[in-house]
Amino acid sequence: VDDSTVARKQVSRCLQTVGVEVVALNDGRHALNYLRQLVDEGKKPEEEFLMMISDIEMPEMDGYTLTAEIRSDPRMQKLHICLHTSL
Predict the structure, then answer these.
(1) pTM for this predicted structure
(2) Which CATH number is 61's domain given?
C-alpha cells in the first residue's frame, strides 16, 4: 500500500522477483476497504496474504491509522504488517 506509483512498482517488482504474488493498492482507505470486503466474504486476510507492506505517509489514510483500524477488527488482527517510509 503506497500512494507513490514509483514506490509501489519498486516493492512489487522486488517481491515478484522472488515469486511473491502482489496486490498493490494506492492508499490506506482503499486497502482497508479491500480487507473489509475480504472478511465480509468470509476470508481470513492472514490466510490470503503473507503480510501487508504499507507506506506510513499517505494522503487519504496514513499507515498508522490503517494499522490501528486493522488491529481493532478481530477478523483482521492476525495479519502481519510491515510499515515503511522514505523518511
Answers:
(1) 0.92
(2) 3.40.50.2300
